[in-house]
Design brief:
This protein is mostly helical and 229 residues long. It has one domain (3-228). The protein is 72% helix and 0% strand. The chain contains ten helices and no strands. The N and C termini lie far apart (38 Å).
């Protein structure tokens, strides 16, 4: 399975998740679609980490992701001003992906001063309202550091299980108020390891710009439909 098809699965998962969240009342269909939606974030994080190793220019790759994150954030600010929906200021998943990629680049730099900055960035994100927050950043860093090692899939499984346990069980139990808390359905994110296990290491068809355009547009369309219902 190429990166193209993993991205398609992630986009489909995300779209169904957002559609259920905005358009459906709590029901079996709602729970099923939102559970399937848990695959999206681990897959996007995996693809960002893979991009680090497959890009011809890490600097250009980083600039592109950060640039689109800022453009999309500006779009969501405009959407917030138009709708008054405050949560729109914290749904930009590209900010999380950009933060994770930046942290990975800093940690892989081989220079202590940059590695310290990478750790500080991870800590900083923990205090932000970014979508998926430090969970997403740690997934990207984890996938990036595991890349190419022996028993990679086993380590990826351990990474995802560990982070899910922390944010589903440990954080609410310990009452750490500033960290994100997930519902038990987040355990369905482990299913993301199936396409990851089938990954061939090849890019396949290119979808570089499509996702960055599709992400804000599909949310705007879904939110628009929700206002009409």
């Amino acid at each position: 399975m190429t990166a193209f098809w993993i991205k398609i699965i992630a986009i489909a998962s995300m779209t169904l998740d957002h559609s259920a969240y905005h358009l459906l009342e709590p029901s079996v269909a709602y729970d099923v679609l939102r559970s399937f939606g848990r695959l999206a974030m681990p897959l996007f994080c995996f693809l960002i980490a893979e991009g680090y190793y497959h890009t011809h220019s890490i600097k250009a790759y980083l600039k592109r992701v950060i640039g689109f994150a800022l453009l999309i954030e500006a779009f969501f600010i405009v959407l917030y001003l138009a709708t008054g929906e405050l949560y729109l200021l914290s749904v930009n998943i590209i900010l999380t992906l950009a933060s994770g990629l930046t942290a990975l680049v800093l940690l892989k730099s081989g220079k202590m001063k940059y590695q310290i900055l990478g750790v500080l960035l991870i800590v900083l994100v923990a205090f932000t309202p970014f979508d998926y927050g430090v969970y997403g950043v740690l997934l990207i860093v984890g996938f990036g550091l595991i890349h190419g090692e022996e028993k990679t899939l086993l380590k990826q499984f351990a990474l995802l299980v560990s982070l899910n346990f922390v944010f589903i069980v440990a954080v609410p139990y310990l009452g750490i108020g500033f960290l994100i808390v997930f519902l038990p359905m987040q355990w369905f994110s482990l299913l993301a390891l199936v396409p990851i296990a089938l990954y061939s290491g090849k890019e396949g068809k290119k979808l570089q710009m499509f996702f960055y355009i599709y992400y804000p547009v599909h949310l705007a369309v879904i939110i628009g439909i929700s206002y009409l219902l």
